[in-house]
Design a protein that fits this description.
With 139 residues, the chain is mostly helical. The chain has a single domain, classed as Orthogonal Bundle (Endonuclease III, domain 1). The protein has seven helices and two strands. The chain has helices at 2-16, 26-41, 47-55, 84-97, 103-111, 119-128, 130-138; strands at 57-61, 64-68. It has a two-stranded antiparallel ribbon with strand order 1-2. Helix 1 (2-16) packs antiparallel against helix 6. It is elongated. Bound molecules: zinc ion. The site of zinc ion has 5 residues, from helix 7. Zinc ion is lined by residues 95, 100, 129, 131-132.
Length: 139
């Protein structure tokens, strides 16, 4: 199932060809973290730097640096960016935790913890779940 998902995900990434942070691999994810940290340590920041810091922040989680959405009064909770390679694990956990959750439940649940898991990606995941596909064809 994981292979099938990643294959479809790669097709989506290839089709998009965008610089969108919604679909970034681990290598670019690490680059982003490096860049954000560099900007943060700069004594003088320019407009581009502030733009970067408005969207990305780095948080140390048990010795592992993770990219998060900057927190503020409106959004005080931590929301993580997920690299492509980890998407399957994240989706799979939520899907099974909520007993083969549908797209709406998954989206609502994922939104509370992650900031770059799109509905499109959830849809791809669901088409890869045999149990859900069978349920669908039976009703
Ligand atoms: Zn399922």
């Amino acid at each position: 199932m994981k292979e099938e998902f990643n294959e479809r995900l790669n097709t989506l990434v290839a089709r998009k060809k965008s610089n969108s942070v919604y679909l970034i691999n681990t290598a670019r994810y690490q680059d982003f973290i490096k860049e954000v940290k560099e900007i943060k340590s700069k004594p003088y920041k320019d407009f581009e730097d502030y733009k970067m810091l408005a969207s990305y922040d780095v948080l140390d989680v048990n010795g592992r640096e993770r990219m998060i959405q900057p927190r503020n009064e409106v959004n005080p909770s931590i929301k993580f960016y997920v690299p492509l390679e980890e998407l399957f694990g994240v989706l799979h956990t939520i899907h099974l935790l909520f007993k083969h959750a549908n797209i709406d439940v998954m989206e609502a649940e994922l939104k509370t913890k992650f900031c770059n898991v799109s509905k499109e990606v959830i849809k791809i995941y669901l088409t890869c779940c045999k149990t859900c596909q069978e349920k669908k064809s039976n009703t």
